[in-house]
Amino acid sequence: MNLQNIKTLGQLKEINYKPRSVKEELRDNLIKKIGKKEITFPGIIGYEDSVIPDTERALLSQHNILFLGLRGQAKTRMARQMIDLLDEYIPVIEGSEVNDDPFKPLSKYARDLVKEKGDDTPISWLHRKDRYGEKLATPDVSVADLIGDIDPIKAANLKLSYADERVIHYGIIPRSNRGIFVINELPDLQARIQVSLFNILEEGDLQIRGFKLRLPLDIMFVFTANPEDYTNRGAIVTPLKDRIESQILTHYPTTIENSLFITEQEASLHSDQLKKVHVSDLVKRLIEQVSFEARTSEFVDKKSGVSARLTISAYENAVSAAERRAIMNKEKETQIWISDLTGIIPSITGKIELVYEGEQEGPYQVAYNLLEKSIRTQFVKYFPNPESYKKRKSKEAVLEENPYKSITRWFDAGNQLNISFGLKDEDKVQLLYKVDGLFGFVKKHFPNANTKENALLMEFVLHGLSTYSLISKKVLEGKIEFKDLMGSMINLSSQSFSDEELE
Q1: Which domain holds residue 214?
Q2: How far apart (Å, rounded) are the C-alpha atoms in residues 244 and 65?
């Protein structure tokens, strides 16, 4: 039966319609989903064994929820997805500002209409997408915004006294009646405004100016907040916290794999970019590693957190860097090289909060260092750890030949490699093959790699060796310069004591 064909309260009674509260809807529909083993929160990665089970338990308990966690941890997304657990349509009294239930009208308008028309009371059907209210808490949010106030213009137009309930202009919370209401960043709400929520949560009372108004609102409240200790703006007042039945702690992805899923799911790439730019798994992992390095860095404020948006933006910028280079070189297709990753630095600098030491270093330098650490961490997952070949003791039973010896020897002989940022793919490949032993080393460890993969891995080896101080790497204007470490140090020394400076 198509419920939307029902237009009056009487017709609703004829089909024996049984209204339910919002929390009952959420509970019943969640039970159905769990019973059918359906995914309750699709697209939420990494929360399968932590946040999602906690949320499901809270919904089954019919609790209001507080999601507590750092930025970029899908708190608001979790709240928005709860809409899918509501019934598709519910009946409301037509013209009601607060989505009055035809069987339990709250507002004076609805009560008077039902009293006047009885079973002929007109009803309309409200879709679940229209049953969601959201407010970002800011210090300037007032009680009137959330709950309501007296509207003098309405009083004048309707020729009503201020004592009449009909002069009330309802705020966003009453207008979210019979739905889900979310307050983001709850600690940013002034304490006196938080206090106004007490009665709504506990008893369903609304207090507007001097009105003796009791509206037992049917609302599922969801709040989001950073941990109290991590914000300078305010805190959640204790009595309010006490009235929020379930507090659920969110977290960042715990593995690179989960982080990869999130980035690929959320990244917004143009169709032309998808056709033109190939992104290897290696590059993807390097980008994801940056956020992991940032979260443990001494230069980055851990209290602020490092959002998952960092890697999403960085991924998009890396693709765009490769695309720009391909357009300039009139190449039909290309891949993201390691050198292209310098293009993600603007994505990093805007997504991290620095502590004092980091501020002295400068945001660019900190971002560059995080990229270098990412390369260093991922390098040993693909190739032997260069550290293990440093300072080997002669007493060791088995002395392995240093696999990097032929590569470093080429640079020790005075050779250097200058890789321009705008270099064509084929020209870059030719340059990489000039380094003695580089191709043979990569082929030994990755015998099944194709030509493009070989070239990328060869470049990766050079960048990796530089992070382990086996060769020197300098990022100059428009290019990256690789040379031997000792030669680079001697040059630095000679530059420091030039004849001009000695004069």
Answers
A1: 3-249
A2: 6
